[in-house]
């Protein structure tokens, strides 16, 4: 068993000076005001949640007699909020396509996803949750040392492939998960992953991260399109003629993701890298409360 001194030394080794990514994530997390974290479900815990009418089968010791005395011919049970720590697994697309940014003052999709994922981890860990990263094989754990491990893992360079498929490795059954990607590659692996996740009782959220240029397609005339990894190149003299077809396909892709999430008990968010991250963070944090 590791001693307290050993844990501290591990944390200091991982941290060094506070990594800029973690500092940015801490700042983003601080911008989202949240109350004391709770799962808003009946179960073991110390915090009062609600009164409910007594049902057949409730034991006498469960009755709140003081509350029942204020009602006419009704008995009430005092329920506590379910507060057991839950596991949340994150997956971030490490493909080359995520390294795209259309302007110097706009973060890449990869950097945006990293900051959002780590800020979400900060909020969850503060609430006593366990957080893991499937890309790095990091099982869900809680605590500051885990945040430092996540920071170190998220700083890894992109993979060689243009697109990555979601990884379910290490995600506990009946837990929560969040997938970050532009989802611009083949959707078949995404569908298989969500179907397998649903079969294991895993629910969560898809966060599609797009650059504003990918949403607007502001090209016209002669244009050379090249993937970040350089494996795909397309040249056209009339880029404007492609706009309509591209926007139709993008809308169809977003609709397919939304429908896939809905059919598997997940939720879907499309986030643009030029927009405030606090709104997306708050949505993701709430999404983990809404999924069942």
TrEMBL record:
This is DUF58 domain-containing protein. It comes from the Bacteria. Residues 50-228 form the DUF58 domain. InterPro entries: DUF58. The lineage of its organism: Bacteria, Pseudomonadati, Pseudomonadota, Alphaproteobacteria, Rhodobacterales.
């Amino acid at each position: 068993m590791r001693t307290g001194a050993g844990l501290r030394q591990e944390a200091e080794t991982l941290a060094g000076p506070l990594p800029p990514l973690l500092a940015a994530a801490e700042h983003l997390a601080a911008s989202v005001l949240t109350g004391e974290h709770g799962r808003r479900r009946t179960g073991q815990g110390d915090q009062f949640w609600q009164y409910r009418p007594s049902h057949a089968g409730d034991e006498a010791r469960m009755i709140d007699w003081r509350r029942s005395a204020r009602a006419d011919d009704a008995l009430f049970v005092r329920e506590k909020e379910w507060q057991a720590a839950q596991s949340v697994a994150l997956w971030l697309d490490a493909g080359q396509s995520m390294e795209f940014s259309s302007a110097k003052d706009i973060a890449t999709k990869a950097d945006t996803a990293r900051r959002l994922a780590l800020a979400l981890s900060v909020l969850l860990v503060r609430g006593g949750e366990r957080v893991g990263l499937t890309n790095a094989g990091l099982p869900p754990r809680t605590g500051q040392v885990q945040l430092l491990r996540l920071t170190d893992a998220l700083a890894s360079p992109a993979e060689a492939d243009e697109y990555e498929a979601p990884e379910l490795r290490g995600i506990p059954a009946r837990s929560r998960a969040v997938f970050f990607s532009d989802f611009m590659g083949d959707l078949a692996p995404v569908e298989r992953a969500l179907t397998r996740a649903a079969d294991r009782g895993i629910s969560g959220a898809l966060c599609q991260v797009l650059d504003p240029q990918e949403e607007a397609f502001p090209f016209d005339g002669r244009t050379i399109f090249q993937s970040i990894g350089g494996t795909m190149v397309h040249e056209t003299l009339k880029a404007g003629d492609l706009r309509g077809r591209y926007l139709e396909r993008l809308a169809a892709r977003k609709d397919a993701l939304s429908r896939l999430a809905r059919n598997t008990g997940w939720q879907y968010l499309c986030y643009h890298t030029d927009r405030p991250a606090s709104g997306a963070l708050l949505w993701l944090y709430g999404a983990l409360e809404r999924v069942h």
